[in-house]
Amino acid sequence: MNSIPAATKPAKLPASIVEGADARTRPADIAIAFDHVDVELGGRRIIDDLTLDIAAGEFVCVVGPSGSGKTTALRLIAGLVKPSRGTVLFRGRPLEGSSRDIAVVFQDYSKALLPWRTAAQNVSLALEARNLPAKERPVLIAELLAKVGLQDHAGKYPAEMSGGMQQRLQIARCLAQKPAVLLMDEPFGALDAMTRQSLQDEILEIVRSSGASVFFVTHDLEEAIYLGDRIIGLRSNPGRIGATFQVDLPRPRDQLSTREQPEFLRLRRELFDFIKDAEHERGR
Amino acid sequence: MSAAANRSVTNRASGLVVPLVLIVVGEAAFRAGYLQGDVLAAPSRIFLAFIAALRDGTLLAATKDTMITTFGGLALGGLIGLALGVMLGSFARLDRLLAVPIEIARPIPSVALVPIAMVVAGFGYSMEIAIVGFAAAWPVLITTRSAIAEIEPRLIEVARVLRLGWIATIFKILLPASLPRIFVGFRLAAGIALIVSVTVEIAANPIGLGHAIMMAQQSLQPALMLAMLVWIGVVGFAMNGVLIFLQQRLFGRAALAGDPP
Amino acid sequence: MKARVAWNLASIAVVVAIIMLWQMVADTKILSPAFFPGPDRTWKALTRAAISGDLAPRIYATVWRMLIGWMLASVLGILLGSLIGSSERLRRFLGPTLEFLRPLPASATIPVFIVLLGLSDAMVLSVVAFGALWPMLLGTVHGFQAVEPRLYEVARVLHLSRLAVIFKIALPSAMPDILSGLRLSLTVALILTVVCEMLIGVDGLGSWTLISARAFRSADLYAGVLLLGLIGYLGATALAVLSRRLLVWKHGSR
To answer: Which class for A284: exposed (0-12), middle (13-18), buried (19 or more C-beta within 10 A)?
Structure first.
């Protein structure tokens, strides 16, 4: 039997925060909850008994070797994949397909943008989907483009923009949904180091001002520490939670000083060891 | 069987459903008398007519004629198209100079040249080969031209540094680098060559498969006519299939991503 | 910009040079004037036919047949093509049949249509429409089939309605293939119109050239061929302009 509505079942707390505490207390505002979720595709178990809560406004980073189900977990929240068992809950209610309040930033940005629409028109797509009256769109579009620094490129086509700019455009389109949850699937993986760093800071600022929860999948361990409030480390075969790491670094984060903090370096070593172990286990 | 292999077997099987259903329904309709045999013909009769034409040699003779004109025209037009394409692709100035004449000559429908060819050469192989050549030259010219023009400039720099003369550059660097796309041009031209051949035979020239199918219609033999139609389809399909097979063998799929099917 | 205009003029000059060469060769009468008239005679024949009022109805007839057949084929082709192209199941069942029909010469269906509809205008229209349908259909199917799957996921996440997905995502994405299908099927429509006119003798440019050929009126014949080329050229150019307008994003406004 799968879905038991969250209201009648005590929610699980993230493992590393409280071990063995009274599981009956329910923290307010859980944005996303995985409730014993299994995903099986093509006879293989991709995700096994995933149980996880993401609080409102929390920035959760997900790391793990290939095949650990990171992207699948993201797609579960996006409504692009259905669980074989268990439930995914958004604000306490089971997710039925995609929710308008959950936005997805895909890694392959050039494929996720409409090449025949300008930057402004691409952002407009999200507003059209919301059935926003045409008169109100230009103001919002200008605002959103300004938020990601593309206000001078509104009339350009994606093919005329650099990788970083295209990814920013995708972010702007997602923000047009006024999302409560932002899903990001290795969004900066294809970009050069400098662009990646400036986008990291931009995302932190955007998320801070909007209060959205973030589910951020990445291969880059330092990026995970830099951005996250909490890091979930997944293992593979089958995909499951291996460890959870609380990130006790002050905000706002800074590219230079944060990365030099002893806490940062400690987490870095722990994560590194975890991944090495998880990869090794996967190879076996 | 793996999941992918399973899927492709079902794919192939579902592809055959439509033709099989058509054949079965057609046969049943004729047997039951819903359709009459004077306008169209039952699949079984079509098959018999096909066998008969095969036996008495007419099918093979007509096929031979059409193949001669198709491949003759393909060779003629292909060579001209190739030569012109190499020149236009290598010399940008020549390309720009000849842009307008080519734009004017290209849209002339090849069939429109039938009366001219008729007047000059009468009926037979040569007039048809000439027209097929005209039609087949264009796809070869255009693909060769862009294949050559889009060759990696670095390779041309290599040729210059090695001091190859322009003949050597063409044969040792330009042609081999552009061969995959040139082959695609020839493949397209082959399809066009067959189509134009049959069309010329239907419009005027009393040889080949086009003529045979018109004869069948005029002598009120619907079964033979439809058999010819199917056979023409089979010939075209087989030709294309062989060329695609060759293309994959010679060049592999990676070299040709994004090309027309 | 100036360089481009200059090259265009130079290219037109080449055309003029070719015409003059043509005149010179014709004047030497190396090739019999019975089948190689010079541009002067061709032009005279053209103006003569235009003035006598015989030319206009012929041009009109040919163009009308070509356009009507082409438009029918285009509408049907886009409709069917979008249905088939966006349905994986339909593609599985119809795909191989369509692939088999792709290399089939459309003109080979003419005798079948003659049997069904006799030697009439209806038959010509049917042949043209049927023949022009296939490149349109195949092109549209390919366009819809090749829509970037990621865009469908984006549409799901944004909650676009089904109609919005078709008109805002699938159709614009398939537009390049649809446009090249339109170009190809216009070419096919013209060819089939000419063939039918030659076969049946209904009045039009195709039959005019054939009759002129048989009567050895070579100037008329060449005039007719040039007119057919002109029709082909105008059609291709019109579609090219349309293409460039609609596909600005592809060719870049850089």
So the answer is: exposed
